[in-house]
Hints:
Helix content: 55-70%
Organism: Winogradskyella echinorum
Pfam family, one: MamF_MmsF
Shape: elongated
Keywords: Membrane, Transmembrane, Transmembrane helix
Subcellular location: Membrane
Transmembrane segments: 12-38, 59-79, 103-126
Low-confidence stretches: 83-87
Order of helices and strands: HHHH
Amino acid sequence: xxxxxxxxxxxxxHLSTFSRFIIPFGNFIGPIVLxxxxxxxxxxxxxxxxxxxxFQISVLLYAIIIGTISVPFFIFKLFNGMDVINFHGxxxxxxxxxxxxxxxxxxxxxxxxxxxxxxxELALIVRASLSARDGQVYKYPLxxxxxx
Length: 148
């Protein structure tokens, strides 16, 4: 029997991921605490807790991959043409931006992809919360199931 209390707990498990805007790693701490304290009460709460935690771990993994790929493109462009040997202090120091490099376009594209992924993540969390409120099981797309 699925009652309103179980639906509310499952909803709050998903919504607790927004605590990352207040508490560092709150997107992990909130769902883990709520799920661990209530997973024996209902299979519904257990499923939603695992989904929320798996999704947050997957998002972190994807962000690390995108960051690892994009950061070198910006570093190579920043230090391109900088003469380190003939550096004469800060009096005449300037950085010549010059012509945009294809590396900068690739890095910028990956940065734009990260921003779009962040917006999609927020929308999916809200959608999962609404599904939990309605008593439906929600599976996040592109989620790696670390907890089964």
